[in-house]
Design goal:
Blueprint (H helix, E strand, L loop, with lengths): L2 H4 L2 H9 L5 H15 L8 H48 L6 H13 L49 E2 L4 E4 L3 E7 L11 E5 L3 E6 L6 E4 L4 E11 L3 E8 L25 H5 L3 H18 L5 H16 L12
Antiparallel strand pairs: 1-2, 2-3, 3-8, 4-5, 5-6, 7-8
Length: about 325
């Protein structure tokens, strides 16, 4: 900023503070001064003085945006440096003489943190195959021919969602809960994280690093009702409020592997929380969804069949053997 630009700052600042209406009133005073004391408006045609105003304000706007972006870059770089410094400090503080047993315990603890776990279930740790027993597995065998389309899809976890390497999610018909454990050796703070919840997008990760999740959600959510918290300074928990409360999600984001919604078993206690009319509608839609997936008649189809059977019983004289109904 040049000295010429600053020479009237004190006068303009004092003038601006006298305007209770803020910037609009301040600009009105300047425009009024030009009208009353100069030929600004009458000395040239409107196109010329309008262009002059726009040129001046556009020039200052570009300078303001450039300054803002530069300040933002400096802020982000400062946060990144502080983040790395804290991480380094925490790592260095752990360098001390320990026994072999203590070292083994620390290694086991760090390995446990590398993968999410379904709450309230036990799982073994370590580098062997048993450490992945909680990860959702694909369906390799079906007992019914109508379920062939489910081969290769993942089995839902205990919460009707999916457990992957870096995070797990569960769901009810009303909402989705996502848990992302971060494998760090220090206590996380909210400012260390990037959590952006859009209407149909989600981005989560540590600042300055590749995001854990960055993609399109399986369905739209209510942004104003969706929240996130940092639990135990290690785990981000996100609750997404569904807009469509009649469907189960088959995946969290579109790039995730698909789970078999036919294997979902909703808890009766969840349905009991709904009022009678809503519960009946939800149960009907869940039944119809499963029937369609299995290639069986829906409740509406059954109702039509019942009506037809009653009609046939009431009219035994009619021959329906050659009739085809859709």
């Amino acid at each position: 900023m040049s000295a010429e630009e600053e020479q009237f700052d004190s006068v303009l600042l004092a003038l601006a503070t006298e305007h209770r209406g803020g910037v609009p009133d301040f600009l009105h005073t300047l425009a009024s001064f030009l009208r009353r004391k100069t030929d600004f408006y009458t000395g040239a045609n409107p196109a010329e003085w309008e262009k002059l105003l726009l040129d001046v304000f556009r020039k200052e706007s570009k300078l303001a945006l450039a300054d803002h972006e530069a300040a933002q870059r400096v802020k982000e770089e400062k946060e990144r440096i502080e983040f790395e410094a804290r991480q380094k400090e925490m790592n260095e503080s752990k360098i001390c003489d320990i026994t072999d047993e203590e070292a083994a315990a620390i290694i086991k603890e760090e390995q446990d943190k590398k993968r999410p776990k379904i709450p309230d279930t036990s799982a073994s740790a370590g580098g062997d195959s048993s450490s992945r027993e909680d990860i959702s597995k694909p369906i390799e065998k079906v007992e019914d021919e109508t379920e062939k389309s489910e081969l290769g899809k993942l089995l839902p976890n205990a919460g009707n969602g999916c457990t992957l390497d870096k995070y797990l999610w569960t769901q009810t018909l009303q909402e989705v809960e996502l848990k992302i454990p971060f494998n760090v050796t220090f206590a996380l703070r909210a400012r260390d994280l990037v959590v952006n919840i859009g209407k149909k997008t989600l981005k989560v990760g540590l600042k300055g690093q590749e995001p854990i999740i960055d993609g399109e959600l399986s369905a739209e959510v209510k942004q104003e009702e969706s929240v996130w918290v940092l639990q135990d300074s290690k785990t981000v928990i996100i609750t997404l409020e569904k807009i469509n409360k009649m469907n189960w999600w088959s995946r969290l984001v579109t790039t995730d592997p698909e789970i078999s919604t036919r294997k979902i078993n909703p808890e009766p206690s969840k349905l009991s929380d709904l009022d009678g009319e809503t519960r009946s509608m939800v149960e009907k839609m869940m039944f119809d969804q499963r029937q369609k997936e299995m290639g069986l008649p829906t409740s509406e189809d059954r109702k039509k069949q019942d009506i037809l059977e009653k009609f046939k019983q009431q009219h035994p004289e009619m021959d329906f053997s050659k009739c085809k109904f859709n």
